[in-house]
Amino acid sequence: MLIDDEVDLGLIPVAAILNLTEWHTVTNYCIGANGPVASVCIFSELPIDQIETVYLDYQSRTSVNLAKVLLKEYWRKPVVFLDAKGEDFRQKIIGTTAGVIIGDRALEQRQHSSYIYDLAEAWKLHTGLPFVFAAWIANKKLPAEFVQLFNEANSLGFDHLDEIVEQNSFVPYDLKKYYTKCIDYNLDEEKRRAMKLFLTKLKDIL
């Protein structure tokens, strides 16, 4: 809808920005990480230098493209990529076949896979920068008054973090740790630089 100009603003994967003719970051918040994120990883039974095939999670354009960048530049490991196409492919992570998994399923998979390669952590080791998975992006310049109010609205959730955790039980992983240690919501200058660097690298592989 953002690409088709049906809405002015959306929380979108950073990789989708390349589909916009004009874009602006809005608010001081994002979904990012400054180290291990825990929920965006390559999982395998073997070390990554032995991996030949990688399933790509259909749920995240940014994460799968980050995996492609890191496999090419950081691990320097040529592999065959397979599009998961909406299926639960976790049972296919065997032998030389690995998988990029994100979100709740990734937090669950941490209990089953022998090898876990955290993509945000690998990006930090590779570039020295944090990573931004998604950001509030507008397809046009928005009024300053709206941006200020929207920024204040985004900040409300952080004032009620304990309540949010209490209302959302999740056995496989400590959500308080996840929301406070793994996810970094502050869209600072370092993250803005990281976004631009990732988009530049992305153009080279698309």
Could you state the oligomeric state of the chains shown? single chain
Taken as a percent bin, the fraction of beta residues is 15-25%
Number of domains: 2
The largest sheet, given as strand count, sense and whether it forms a barrel, is:
5 strands, mixed
Structure explained in plain terms:
The protein is of the alpha+beta class and 206 residues long. It has 2 domains: 9-35 and 134-205, no CATH class; 40-127, Periplasmic binding protein-like II (D-Maltodextrin-Binding Protein, domain 2, 3-Layer(aba) Sandwich). Helices cover 35% and strands 24% of the residues. The protein has 7 helices and 9 strands. A 5-stranded mixed sheet has the order 5-4-6-3-7. It has a 4-stranded antiparallel sheet with strand order 1-8-2-9. α1 (61-73) crosses α3 (119-127) and α1 crosses α7. The longest helix has 17 residues, at 189-205. It is globular. The mean pLDDT is 94.
List the main descriptive attributes of the protein structure presented here:
four-stranded antiparallel beta sheet; alpha+beta; 206 residues; five-stranded mixed beta sheet; 7 helices; 24% strand; 9 strands; 2 domains; D-Maltodextrin-Binding Protein, domain 2
